[in-house]
Amino acid sequence: MVEGRSEKVFAQWLEERPQSFRDNVREVAMDAFSGYKRAAARQVPHAVEILDPFHIVKLAGDKLTCRALPTSTRGHGPGGAGATTRSIRAGGASLHRRIQTSHPTHL
Fold first, then answer.
1. What is the pLDDT of residue 61?
2. For the segment 9-67, what is each residue's pLDDT rounded down to a tens digit?
3. Which of 4, 26, 49, 85 allows an S-S link to 9, with CB 3.0 to 4.6 Å?
4. Considering the domain boundaries, does residue 2 fall inside one?
5. How far apart are alpha carbons 75 and 85 in whole angstroms?
């Protein structure tokens, strides 16, 4: 982990590593902060950028809390809890397929 939360700090940390270190970086796990992405793209352009699992779950939770909660708790009808569960499962399967397609060796 790199202390600090800025593109400059992360880029500087990478720049301070020897070129042999940077050449061997295959993946960079990070949160969705665009500064990290820019720093990684500049310093280790060959590395695969990976959103870390904590932030994947956090982003999914944020999206769920932003949606209107269903009025039915029995799962009946188009707006029931069952529809929400099906939506979550379908979204997860879709995300998993996209990750496998983009980075099949990482799963």
1. 83
2. 999 999 999 999 999 999 998 888 889 899 999 999 999 998 888 888 888 888 777 66
3. 4
4. yes
5. 9
63 in Cβ contact with 57 (< 8 Å)? no
Tally of domains in the chain: 2
pTM over 0.90: no
Q: How many Å apart are CA 106 and CA 36, to the nearest integer?
A: 20
The residue length of the chain stands at 107
- Helix locations, the chain, DSSP H: 7-16, 19-23, 34-43, 53-66, 81-102
Range of the domain at 81: 67-107
Q: What sign for the dihedral angle of Cα 53, 16, 45, 36? A: positive
- Please indicate, yes or no, whether residues 2 and 43 belong to a single structural domain of this protein: yes
Which residue has tokens 């042999």? 20
